[in-house]
Amino acid sequence: MKTITIKASDEFAQNLVDLAGQLHLSKSELIRQAVERFRQQQEQTLLKAKMQAAAKKVRSQTYDELNDWEATLEDGLKGL
Predict the structure, then answer these.
(1) Can you give the pLDDT at residue 79?
(2) Is residue 78 situated within a structural domain?
(3) Does a structural domain hold residue 43?
(4) DSSP code, position 69
(5) What are phi and psi of 41, to 5 degrees?
(6) Which structural domain, as residue segments, surrounds residue 21?
(7) CA atoms within 13 A on the CB side of 53
(8) Could you say which DSSP state residue 77 is in?
(9) What is the pLDDT of residues 10-65, one digit of tens each?
């Protein structure tokens, strides 16, 4: 396993010690879990944005198709 060194404020370091103690985790494990959770959240955010963009595109295409079909509703029926 690699060793990573960070600079942190005294308050951050104390919060890390306190939280790790409450959760019965080492500081390293707590940081690993936090980074992994953050990575997963970022992935979900990116996926959600992609899905919203795709849905918007489909919605726009569906609206255009609906307008095309509505224009044909009376085709061949005028004058009957």
Answers:
(1) 62
(2) no
(3) yes
(4) H
(5) -65, -40
(6) 10-70
(7) 6
(8) T
(9) 999 999 999 999 999 999 999 999 999 999 999 999 999 999 998 888 877 777 77
